[in-house]
Amino acid sequence: xxxxxxxxHRELPDLDKLSGYRAQGGFETFKKAVNDMSPAEVxxxxxxxxxxxxxxxxxxxxxxxxxxxxxxxxxxVVANADESEPGTFKDRExxxxxxxxxxxxLMLASFAIQANVAYIYLRGEYWQLAKQxxxxxxxxxxxxxxGKDLFGSDYSLNLYTHLGAGAYICGEETALLESIEGxxxxxxxxxxxxxVAGLYGKPTVINxxxxxxxxxxxxxxxxxxxxxxxxxxxxxxxxxxxxxxxVNPGNYELPxxxxxxxxxxxxxxxxxxxRKIKAIMAAGASSTIIPASEEALDTPMDxxxxxxxxxxxxxxxxxxxxxxxxxxxxxxxxTVNFFKHESCGKCTPCRxxxxxxxxxxxxxxxxxxxxxxxxxxxxxAHQIQGKCLCALGEFSTMAVISGVEHFRxxxxxxxxx
Amino acid sequence: xxxxxxxxxxxxxxxEVPAGTRVVDAAKKVGVDIPVFCYHPKLESVGMCRMCxxxxxxxxxxxxSGKVVLEADGSPKIQMAPKLETACTTPVSxxxxxxxxxxxxxxxxxxxxxFILTSHPLDCPICDKGGECPLQNLTMAYGSGTSRxxxxxxxxxxxxxxxxxxxxxxxxxxxxxxxxVRFQHEVVDDxxxxxxxxxxxxxxxxxSEPGFDSVFSGNTTDICPVGALTTADFRFGARPWEMKPAxxxxxxxxxxxxxxxxxxxxxxxSGKPVIKRVMPRQNESVNEVWICDKGRFVHHYNESAERLxxxxxxxxxxxxxxxxxxALETAAAKLKEAGKGLVTLAGxxxxxxxxxxxxxxxxxxxxxxxxxxxxxxxxxxxxxxLNQGSNLGSLGNGDAIVVIAxxxxxxxxxxxxxVKQAAQRGATLIVLNARPTRLDAYAAHALRYQxxxxxxxxxxxxxxxxxxxxxxxxxxxxxxxxNLVVFFxxxxxxxxxxxxxxxxxxxxxxxxxxxxxxxxGLVGVWQHSNDQGAWEMGYAPAADLVxxxxxxxxALLAAADPVxxxxxxxxxxxxxxFVIVQEMFLTASAEKADLVLPVAAIPEREGSLTSGERRAxxxxxxxxxxxxxxxxxxxxxxxxxxxxxxxxxxxxxxVFLRLAQSEPAFAGLSYQALSTxxxxxxxxxxxxxxxxxxxxDNNQGMGTHLQPVLKAGERPAAxxxxxxxxxxxxxxxxxxxxxxxxxxxxxxxxxxRLLVERVATAELxxxxxxxxxxxxxxxxxxxxxxxxxxxSVIVRMDDALPPGAAxxxxxxxxxxxxxxxxxxxxxxxx
Lengths: 417, 830
Description:
Chain A is an alpha/beta fold.
C-alpha cells in the first residue's frame, strides 16, 4: 500500500471522533476556505486536481460544480450515500470510520457553490449511519463549524440527513432528488440537468461520498499533490471493493491505474482452493463480464482502459471475482433478477424488458430453456439498449450481452437436449 | 407578441413552428403521425413509454466561428444523434432533421410495442376500448404480428378494481403511461390518483376516500390509451363500432360543453336507439377536450319510464290522458280567454327556439314572459357580456379575472378549470366570497366579505366602499389589466342580492372600460344552461312571482316547477285560473296543473343554447323522441296556429332564422354559422392512430358568439353601484345562506343511479362557534323553520366557514333560494 487518503482511519487513531479528526488538522481546511479563499478558488483547485466522480460515471467533479449558474438561487449540494450497487461497500467504511473527512468535503463543496443547505441521502439500510451522522452534525454545530455566519463570515451552512426506503434506483441522481422531495423514486427527464433544475427545481450538485471525501485533502495539499496519485486522466486513489472468489475480500485503497492482477493477487490473496480465475465484474451488477485473460488481468483500473479494451466501465469499482466453478448463466440470472426487482417501472423497455429477461433466464437456469432461449435472452437485452429513460435499463443488459457473448457454453450446458 | 419561429425538416417535409414546440406536435402539423402512448398534448410530457423514439440530427456548428458547417453541395452538414430520442420531450430547433421512416425507427416501434404487449392481457375481444384503442391500432401498425413472449408467463393482476363508484381499473391492461395520474395532478389539481410500487408491479391507486374523488374523473377514461380505465356507466355496454355519434351541447350548466352522445340500437329497448355514453367534443374555446362527471353521467333521465308521453287534462279533478288535438285546442282557447292575463314562466333549460316561440305566443296575447330563476342581473350580462373573439383559454399574463359569489368548481366545473388555468398562465385572479372556495388556491387575491355584502365588496374593489386593506391591493392589481372578465354568481345570494351585485359589477366594468371588446365583460354563473339566452330575449324574473302567479288567468309553465321549489309559489299558483305545464316529467307543478303537455328532451330534438359566455351552440337529435312528446317550440307554434299566429314550428333551424331577424343579439346568425367547424389545436380528437377514440373531433361546429347589443361606442344605460342588500341579519334566528352543488337533487340527476352516492344532502354547515350559539353539535339532526316550511337537516361543523351564518345547498329538499332567517331546533330522538 502506498498511502491512505480516504481510509486514513486504518492508520490514524480516533479519526471517527471530532477531537481525533481535529487533532489531524481536521476542519482547518474548511475554516481556511471560508476565511481566506473565494468559492472560485476552491472550485478551481478541485478542477485542476482532475478529481472524477467516484459514484460510477467518473465525471470531472470541478466541471460539474462549474455548471451551477450564478443567476439562479438557492443552490444545494446533495451527498449521494445511497451506495446500493451490489458488491460496493466503500462509502460505508468511509462513513463508519472517517465520516468527518467526508463531512468536511461536503462542507467545502457547499462553500464552493455557495449552498447554505446540503443533504446527505443515505440508503434506508444505513439508518444507523444516519443516526451517527446526525450526532456528528450536532457536534459540528456545537463546535461552531456548522450554522450561521461561520467563523465570523457571512457564510452559513446546515446539513441534513435523509434516509431512502430501499430502492436501488434512488442512487440515480434525479430519482434521488425525487425521493428527497417526498415523491416516488423515479428518474427525471434530462434536460434540464440537476445543475440547473435539481432539488426543488434549484441548481444542485450531487456527489458521491467517496468523491467528497477527497476534497479536504485536495484543498489542503493542492491539485499538483493530488495528481501525484493515479494516472494523468484518472488522478487520485480509489477505494476498490473486492469480493467474490478471492482469499481476502474487502476494501483496498489503491491509486487509479492499478491492475486487476495487483488488486486480486497482491492485495486480495488470489483465488481460494487453488482454483483458476474465470471472469471479473468491475462495476458490481452493472458490469460487463470480463473473461479473465492475462491481458485482462494486466489492464489498469482507471476510467479509460477497461472501457476501451472490454467495453467494461470501471463504475464504482466494485470488483467481483468469479472462479472456474461459477456458471455465468447462473450469474447472469442473478443480475437480471436484481434489475427486474429494482427497475422503477417508469419506462417501458426497462420495466418490461427486465421482467422478460428474468423469465427467460429463470427458465434457462431451471433447466427448462432451449437453445433458442439463449438467443432470445441476448436479443431482448439488445432490444432494451438505447431506449431507456435512465441508465438502469442499460446496466441490466451489460452482464447479459457479455455473458452470452463470452460464455455461451455455460448457457448451453443448462439447455436440455 | 411575436413568437420565435423555428424551421426544421421532418422526413421529406419542411415545417415552421413556434420555438418550444415538441417534435411530436411539429410532425403532426405536417401529417406525420409519430406514435405515442404516454404523451398527450394537454399534459406535461414525460417520455415514459418510449413509443415515440425517432432519429434526430442537428446541424454541425464550427466551434471557432460559430457558423453552421456546410456540405459540398452547400446544404448544412447534419450530425445524427447516436441514440434515438423521444419526440414527445425533444423541443424543435433550427435546422433539425427528424427521421421517422428509417428501419432503426421502425425497429424501435416494433420493439417497444412488443415490450408493452408482454404484460398486456390481449383481451381485446371483451375490452371496452377494443375498436378505438391506441394500443390496438399501434400494434396493428407497428407491431410484429407474432409474440415471442410465452403467454403463461404473463403477469396476472386484478382486473376489476373500482377506483370509486364511477371508474374501474383493469390492472392487467394498464401500460403505466400515467396519463390519468398527470391529468389528476396537473390539469384538474385533484391529486387523488398515484403510482404505487415499482418495476413491473407499478400500479395505479386512488388515495382519496371516497375513491377517485374528483368531479372530472371520467376524463381519465377518455385519455387512457388502453382499456384500463372504464366508467361504471359504460363498461361492457357496447362496442365502439356499433355506436353512432351525435353532436350535442351539455345542458347541465351555463358553460355549454360540446359533447357527443354515442348511440346504439338495443334489443332491451325494443330495438330503439339509446344513449350509451357521453364523450367530450373538442372545442378549445369552450371545454377543450374535457367534461365534468355530471355532464358525462346524467344522461339517464332521457330513457326513464317516468317520462310523460301523452297530454293530460284535469277532468273531474283527475289528470286524464287526452289527445294532442284536444289538449292544444283547450290550451289555445284558454290563452285566448286569458289575453293580458297570460303569465308564461319559462325555465332556463329551454332552447333558444323554445324561448323565442313562447315569447312570441305570449306577447301576441299581451301576456307576461318571466324567467324562473333566483338570480338576477341578466340585463347587464346582455349588454356587457362576452363578444366574438373571446376565449377564456387566451387569458393569461397581464389579464385579470374576478370571480365573485360563486363556487365555480361546483357550479360550472369547466369554467373553474379554465379560470384556474388562466391564473396559472399568469392572469391576476381575484376571488371574492363570504366563504372559502376551491378557486382561492389559484387567486392572487382571495377576499372575504360579510354574508350578503357581495355588491359592497365590488364597490370596495372600486374604492367606493370602505373595505379592508387587502381590497386596496387587489384594486391596484386590477388597475393595469389588459383584459378583465368578471364572473358573478349566487353563492349566499338570492334575486335581490344578485341583481345588485350584477349592477355593481357592470359599474366596475364600465368605469374601467372593460367591455365591448373581446375577452372583456360580465359573465353570470347561471343555474341553467340557457338562462343567458332567455335574458337576451327579454325574459326576466318577476319582482314578485307570488303576486304574478296569483293574478294569472292562465299560467303557462315551461321547464319550470315553482310548486316543487317553494311552498309560497305553490300557494300562489293555486290562485291562477288555469295552469298549463310543459314538462318531461310529472313534476309537483304538473301534478297541480289543469293541462300537462309532454315535451321532448334535448337529445331527442334539434335546437340551440346560449352559454354564459354568450356563445350560441347547436345540438342535434341523437335518439328519436318517445311517441307522443313534442319539442316546446313546436307546441308553442301549434298553439299559435290556433290563435291565428304564424309561428314557425316545422324545424328548429327555421325558428332560429325568425329569432335572428327579430332579436339584434342574434342578427346574422344561422344554423350554418353555428355549425361551422374550425381546426382545433392541439390536434387531439382525430380518429386516427394518434389518440384514436379518446375524444371526438369537432365536425359539427364551434358555435358563434351573439352580437354585441350595444353599438360600437355606445354606452350602456346609466348604471350606478347598487347596494340593495338582502337579509343580512337574522336577529335571534339563524341566517341560512344558499349555495349550489354540482350533484344536487335536481329533477334530472336522480335518474342516474351511479351518481346517487355523490348527491348533496340537506347538510347545514356552519362554524363551530355559531353552532354552539344555537346549541347545535356535529352530526345532530335539526329542524329548520324557514320560508314557512319545516325542513330537517343534519348539522356539520366546518372551521373554514366564517361565524355568524350557516350554509345549506339548494335543491336538497329545503325551499331555500335566497338568504333566510330560520328558527332552528335540535330534533328530539324518538
